[in-house]
Amino acid sequence: MTQPAPVEASAREACSACGGELTALGKCERCGAVFGEAYRCPLCHALSDVEANAQLNWSCRTCGGPRIPPRAGASPEGEIAQLRIARREQLRAGAFHAGSGFALGAGLLALLVTNVVLLATSPPPLAKAFALFASVVPLLLSFLAFRRARAHRQGLERALQQAWLAAASRVAARDGHVTAPALAATLGLDEARAELLLAELSVQDLIGAEPAAARVRVTELARPEELSAAAEEEAQAAQARLNKP
Ligand SMILES: [Zn+2]
Ligand SMILES: [Zn+2]
Question: Is the pLDDT of residue 5 over 50?
Answer without folding.
Answer: no
